[in-house]
Amino acid sequence: MIKLKRFLHSQKYAPYIFILPFVIIFIIFWLFPLLNSFRMSFQDQMLGQEPIWIGFDNYKKLMNDTVFVKAVTNSVIYMAATLLLLIPFPMLFAVLLDSKYMKLREFFKSSFFVPALTSVVVAGTIFRLMFGEMEGSLMNTFLANFNLGPFKYLKDQTLSRIALLALACWRWTGVNMLYFLAGLNAIDKEYYEAAAIDGATAFQRFKNITVPLIKPTTVYVLTISIYAGLAMFTESLMLFNGNNSPKNIGLTIVGYLYRQGIEKNRLGYAATVGIFLLIVAMTINLTQLKLTGTFKKEGSK
Amino acid sequence: MSKLSEKKTKEKGFSLLLILFFTVLFIIIMLPFYAITLASFKPGEDLIRYGLNLRFDLSIMSFDNFVFLFTGDHSYFTWFKNSMFLTIVQVALTLFVSAFVAYGFAAYEFKGKTPLFICVLLIMMVPFEILLLPLYKLIFDLKLMNTYTAIVLPGIANAGTIFFFRQYLRGIPKAIIDSGRVDGATEYGIFFRLIVPVMKPSFAAMAILNGMNSWNNLLWPFMVLGDGKKFTLPIGLKTLLTPYGNNYDLLIVGSFFAILPIFLLFLAFQKYFIGGLTAGAVKG
User: Fold this and answer.
1) Which domains occur in chain A, in start order?
2) Which of A21, A191, A257, B41 is close enough to B61 for a disulfide, judged by CB 3.0 to 4.6 Å?
3) What residues are paired with A44 via a beta bridge?
4) pTM of the model
């Protein structure tokens, strides 16, 4: 007993006690499921039944699965579009908001964050109804001013993509703007003063000081946006009121994983979809981190 | 006009232009909130017929939905109560365990520290959605389906929260720890009595971030919970939308009240919301 107490209280072993909860949770709820995911991808398996080993069959099937290709296309387009919309614009807004001529800065900063407080259920419902196909819906009323429409947004491939992106932009512009504002705050103001003395224009200062020095923030936002874009599911689930959008126009990779694994109880096949997502997400992000030179900087530190 | 005052006018014009620009953005961003607030006063029928719109028509507007929310026969407040309970339990346990672990990483040098910390980063790097199925199967095999344990336990040592706390703790002077040791406190006594009190601001930031995520979380609870009595608010609201018809009377006013607690917290603790969220971004 005394021995145990001495063991628990020794400075040498105490750190391991502190770390222990993490190690346990990490092994049971992260490492084991992840490894199991690889194993399941080589099996034919249903919940509560003995799995059957089937080698690479799931992978072969996946490559010829046109619905899966559709899901991947949707997810990749969504991700690419969110990168184009949710990085440059929030960055620009942050720079403008950070300008010394800006009044009411704190008010705008806070109010742009408010959409991020809503759950995907509430936000999805609001956007589903705003992009409703009825003539009186907000979007159709608005477009009628320009003699356009009415449109059935959620039954059309392009228009439903726009609706999904509108939802994403509404929720995340303010958050990304805050990231960039935090990044801007970390830049030494002396650089700008020196540039102003040298007679640099506002655009030159933005291009030559702000953009390079804010890069760590940009890389961070890029990294999380790539993951969030590729793994998007619940937004589509709420906007289309279910996982079965017409002709799968709203189906995403995770949506397909959910359909196969939960709705159809094909756990093995769904696990294969998960492995695919893992490989694609890791590849894109590692490439991106390499291209932006994040690893190099870490190494030289 | 002198050059100086000319510059002044220019600055004023620029300032005005900025305000105008951000005001337009503000209106666009607030439009959905205005629309849903307006809709909460309209009958569900109107929504089915016209969708969500900005028509301000007093003749069809009433407090009926609010009356129905508070007096009608439905499960809204069961969901509300469940969400409240789950959020509080989840936040309290996650903060406690994550802070405990983070202290281990921040205060000590020990063998295996670096590889273990890489594991923390690894969790943050792999999208949770990939684990959805094996985790679902694990919960099924452990007979934890339909329990709150299944929702709370996997995330109890939250990687992002551990990371944030560790960053925060690294800024705390080691002298506090040494003085505790001189006074004869145990390693855990030092953590609970000396460290936890100075961590308060970081607790606030993480409580809000985790609380918001927990309150709004849909997918995992939706997969794990099958019993309607245990539904959380997001799940409950989702059940109001069915392929056969939507209960907008309750959904809209219910959504309104689902945003409210988070919104009030935000008004009261803005800087913690923003602090918790942006902590990781500046220096990854």
Assistant:
1) 1-40 (no CATH), 56-291 (1.10.3720.10)
2) B41
3) A52
4) 0.90
Peptide bond into B43 cis (omega under 30): no
Cβ–Cβ below 8 Å for A18 and B278: no
| DSSP-derived secondary structure for A129-177 | HHT-SSTTSHHHHHHHTTT-----GGGSHHHHHHHHHHHHHHHHHHHHH
What's the complex ipTM?
0.87
Residue of A18, A96, A134 with shortest CB distance to B103: A18
Asked whether the beta carbons of residue A119 and residue B258 sit closer than 8 angstroms, the reply is yes
Per-residue model confidence (pLDDT) at position B56: 82
> Which run of H or of E encompasses A1?
none
Q: For residue B111, report the phi and psi dihedrals to the nearest 5 degrees.
A: -65, 130
Contact A277 B215 (CB under 8 A): no
Rounded Cα distance between A138 and A144, Å, is 10
* A161/B61 Cα distance (integer angstroms): 33
Amino acid identity of B74?
Answer: H
pLDDT surpasses 80 at B29: yes
Q: Which residue has the tokens 């006594």?
A: B189
Q: For residue A71, what pLDDT is reported? A: 96
The pLDDT value recorded for residue B174 is: 85
Of B98, B99, B104, the residue nearest B187 (C-alpha): B104
What is the C-alpha R_g of chain B?
25
pLDDT classification of B280: cutoffs 50, 70, 90: low
Closest partner CB to A182 (pick from B100, B132, B278)? B278
Q: Which of B25, B52, B120 lies at the smallest CB-CB distance from A137?
A: B52
**DSSP notation for A54-103:** -TTHHHHHHHT-HHHHHHHHHHHHHHHHHHHHHTHHHHHHHHHHHSTT--
